[in-house]
Amino acid sequence: MEIVRVFRKIWGIVIVIFVIAAGMCIFKTNNDNDKKAYDYYSSLTDEYISNLNKMSQDEAYKSVFSVKLEDNEEAQYIRQARAVLKDKIEYAQNYKSKVTDMAGYEKILNSSLYADEDNFGRLNAKKYAKDIKKLADMDVTPANTAAIEKFMDFKEGSVIFAIMIIMLVVIFVDERDNRMIYLTHASSCGRVNLILKRCGILCMFSFICSYIFNTLIYGMFLYMYGGIRYLNVTIQSSQMFSMFPLKINIWQFFILYCAIFAVAMISFGLISYLFVSMFKNYKIAMVVILAIFLCEYLLYNNIEKNSALCILHYVNIINVIIPQYSYFIYENWGYTGFIADISGTTFVLTAVIACIGFCGMLLMGYYMYPDRKQGFLDKVYQRLRELWQQIFGRTNSVFMEFYKSFIIQKGFIILILAIYLFANCKIYRGVNYSNNNLYLVNFYDEFSGRIPDEECDTYISALKNNIDELKKIENLTYNQKKSVSDMESAYAVMVSTVEHVRKISNEKSINAVIVKPDTYNDILGERNYNNQESINLICIIAIILMTAGDFSYERKCGMYVLSRTSKKRNITWINKTVKVALTAVVIWGISLAFNYTNEVSLYTFNNINAPVQSLITFAAFPLKVSIRGYMALCQIIRLIMFIVIGFMVLGISFFMDYKRSVALSVVILLPHVLYILKVPFMYYLSVVIPVDFNRYYIRFAGGIGMFVMPVMMIISGLVIYIIALRKWRVS
């Protein structure tokens, strides 16, 4: 019956964790600046491998790399793809010579610097030479291995899975909350049997979920980066696994990875279960576990690998929780007279942790009673809790709503996760081809922020005269032809810019000025769309998860009927509404702070107080505002949309419990997920994209179409909110 009880409580958490992991996978892929480059890399690799079957290696190479490219952004991605493929081809061609050439190691062994037999450098060279001989018969091909490499780089997946294991451990000990602990722990034999059953459940759960979880994530990376046709090539075809000792292909490696991943999580689960059992209050145990892992993380990140304390880096539980860079990567460490590799060290550490956790649990189950005395930390926790209750009793009802949402319902975890994701949302500065045109750069340096005048006209006329003079010369050199081309393109931009500014000034009576557009083309243009899309998606998900349970706590505590029949029930509704609005403001403010910091670190906002119509893209914008005012307007509309979504979820939560509210609220994100998965028409049904007013304005050129989806969202949100409010008022 224990397995049935655990399954009933954990299945919903598992589904949510899997959805979060899939969402983070999509987010990480969209947020990476290399997605387009890898799309080209995948097609180039397929073309190269296909040509190898028809022609010689040199001819196949020329067929892929000899095509000339134009100087534009797409060509830049193709160049990146070619560079990746070139490295892959060189790696495959040189692999045999690398594993058979011992000259470098013999040089180290014969050097006087490493004459001492116990010298770590000598030991490392000997071990490396011995290990690399095992790879002499590996078949390495320049295949597309981007999916498995991206999968191994997705360390967030391991952290999410570890959180799920902790939740499972907490479910194991929930008899402490329902007072069943005295019955279930009445005898030492019963306690030991229960521990053995739970350890068995932990093992079974870890293995099953490991294969499902990792298959889901790897399948998504295969879909996004390609490479499914190369699953039969050896894992050593990826440079990341050049020293992997087993001769297996990629799909076999993946199966092995899932098994080792499950073992690592079992070890982590056992030690967590031991800590939880050591404390009467599992919350104290969670704080202790968090403190220990925080210390381990700091040691892992801050201790240098060649430090005298490097053992604290390699013998570290972070290597167990995040197995991608420990079990499968070749790296030696040690001291004088001692050497080991990180994979072997981590396997031993995993076994030790598992033994300590399992044996410790058995001993505690046999000797410790459920009614043991409170320890020091238990007493401290009890005292702090009493002090907090005294402070909390003096706060107002709005603060109580925040406390229920952020603390009791664990909203702070969602907020921390959102902050982590915001920190990883970055706009990457693109290739700025205009900076290659010195004539245009000099023009903007001279006249940016100024109204076109006679001096500006003289400057442009002089450039035109120079172009005409150069064109009269016969047999121009390459540099002269390049200069003429740059001057003509710069002249065209200068003329169109000046004409635009004068047209805006004359027709709209707006004091437009010349503005260098590079920064605003990036921040308000297509380059920032994916970044803004990711940020808005995170904000909406966070608002849904933190708002969907607004009425579930009252239902759980049996206070729902009392709240609805109270004379002051309208005040309760107002408090919840204020809480939802402030939650949206907090999430919006945090995302804005991260986004602003990122943009300021990359760009200089020149002439930000100039009228927004000074930019050609916004010539038809109806309001007389500055560029700063336009950007502020976009953020205000974004905040309003977040609040409306929050009101919609609040209305839904009135009719349903937390899980159903989340499920129904997340349905509104389904069109956007389909849009991300390359279903183009879902663009017009997405609730994420309309939040970005700037993107919608540019997409519909200020037409009536830009208002359809936002207005529908506002109306539907307010309708659901008002219906729920009217039902709330009826006792």
From TrEMBL:
Transmembrane segments: 6-27, 157-173, 204-228, 249-276, 282-300, 307-327, 347-369, 402-423, 534-553, 573-596, 639-656, 662-685, 697-724
Keyword line: Membrane, Transmembrane, Transmembrane helix
Species of provenance: Lachnospira hominis (ex Liu et al. 2021)
Taxonomy, superkingdom: Bacteria
Name by which UniProt lists this protein: ABC-2 family transporter protein
